[in-house]
Write a structure and sequence with these properties.
The chain is mainly alpha-helical and 431 residues long. The longest helix is centred in the middle third of the chain and has 33 residues, at 128-160. The chain contains 14 helices and twelve strands.
Length: 431
């Protein structure tokens, strides 16, 4: 039997063992139906990892025949791919419920550690019993970390992208004192140093959860509030039916729209014709009804009224960022959010065109400078809004104090800078 044939035979044995296990079959059905969370995937993968070790142990024989380093390595490599498939199914189902659009990240395969474990199964200086024990324990432990690696990688990435993430470690009913010490639920970045470590045959389950953080600036310009929600709720406050045009009707409408702007130029940009196509190049606004009180063109025109607004327009054009303008309703008066590099502006919660333009400025400032999750970053974004509203490039000392006071009252869970996002990376310094 060739090496590849033996590897395929072991895979078939592994699949048969998994299919005959009632607990695994039940968990897999729950995962595939989109009803599972990461506690379920942790339970599934812990048991499946043990099966990988068991199959290798049952086929471990004296060095020189049967199981060798390459076959063991390939089994781990296959397990790594399977772990990502399982976790991705859970992740996508959870994201769909919250309307989060971030692709799952597949952690890097632990190449060196896998090679070392696989090589240890060809150690001619130890007994066959030791080889079997190594196959069952070491291989299973490495496979089990695939789930932990996924949790750690994706939780960290999403926290940096602006989501609010927590990681949890739950010990078995009679877990050891060491595991009990690190067990618990922690916001990402605050977990104990040994949170991700495991001892042999550790049965702790590690999972995580994430949710959007939505920010709102009140209309009076002095008070701010923050709110978060676990599920995206599509309220039916705004209902409309898109107008379906024939190709001829669409062309006629386009010519009619363009004719309204012929002969106009943008100040400082001689002979540049102003037209509605520029608004659609900057914003993703194709599902906004024609009768909407706030349009992409309205927002573009308002942003052109200040230096801050023009800077944002230049940034959007240069970086090819297209904020999504939508009349989807959001609870809590949420006006906008920046998540994973994407910007969403909820026009139904903007009281007027100026407020919508300020929301674009606020979210673009988060994205442009890679800042967030701190009182300081909120002050920066809100200061840019106020400058645009008042048509100035500077604020008075009194205005700065009002902003800082209001932000600190509204965001008590944030530090001034420590733990926030600066240039896309989490800050560890500052108060």
């Amino acid at each position: 039997m060739t090496e590849q044939e033996f590897y395929q035979e072991l895979l078939a044995k592994l699949d048969r063992a998994a299919e005959s296990d009632k607990q695994l079959a039940s968990l897999l059905e729950k995962i595939q139906s989109g009803q599972a969370d990461f506690a379920d995937s942790a339970a599934y993968w812990q048991k499946f990892s043990a099966l990988i070790g068991s199959v290798l142990s049952q086929n471990a024989v004296s060095p020189g025949s049967g199981l060798n380093e390459e076959v063991s390595y390939l089994m781990l490599k296959s397990g790594h791919m399977r772990a990502f498939e399982i976790m991705s199914m859970v992740q996508k189902a959870l994201d769909q419920k919250q309307n989060i659009h971030i692709n799952p990240i597949n952690p890097k395969f632990p190449e060196e550690r896998a090679r070392q474990a696989a090589h240890s199964l060809e150690d001619a200086t130890v007994s066959e019993e030791v080889i079997r024990r190594r196959a069952e324990n070491a291989i299973a432990n490495i496979a089990n970390t695939f789930h932990d690696d996924y949790i750690q990688e994706n939780a960290n990435f999403r926290q940096k992208a602006g989501l609010k993430c927590h990681v949890s470690r739950i010990g078995a009913s009679k877990c050891c004192a060491w595991c009990a010490e690190v067990a618990g639920r922690y916001s990402v970045g605050s977990e104990p140093a040994d949170f991700w470590r495991r001892h042999d045959k550790c049965t702790c389950k590690i999972s995580y959860e994430n949710q959007r953080v939505r920010q709102q600036l009140s209309g009076n310009g002095k008070a701010w509030a923050v709110t978060s929600e676990i599920q995206r709720r599509r309220a039916q406050a705004v209902q409309y039916k898109p107008t379906v045009l024939t190709q001829e009707q669409a062309q006629a409408l386009e010519q009619q729209s363009l004719s309204r702007f012929r002969g106009l130029t943008i100040p400082g940009k001689t002979n540049k014709i102003v037209n509605q196509s520029r608004a659609l190049e900057i914003f993703n606004a194709y599902d906004i009804p024609e009768t909407a009180r706030i349009s992409a063109q309205n927002i573009l025109n308002d942003l052109e009224t200040s230096d801050i607004g023009k800077e944002v327009l230049n940034y959007l054009e240069e970086q090819e960022v297209r904020p999504k303008l939508t009349y989807d309703s959001r609870s809590g008066g949420v006006r906008g959010e920046e998540i994973g590099g994407e910007i969403f502006i909820y026009l139904s919660n903007c009281k007027d065109i100026k407020t919508a333009a300020c929301t674009v400025i606020h979210e673009c400032t988060h994205r442009r400078y890679g800042i967030g999750q701190s009182q300081w970053s909120e002050c920066v974004c809100i200061a840019q809004e106020i400058k645009h509203r008042r048509g100035r490039n500077d604020l008075t000392e009194s205005e700065r104090r009002v902003i800082i006071k209001a932000v600190k009252e509204a965001y008590p869970e944030f530090n001034w800078r420590r733990g926030g996002i600066i240039r896309g990376r989490r800050s560890k310094s500052g108060r």
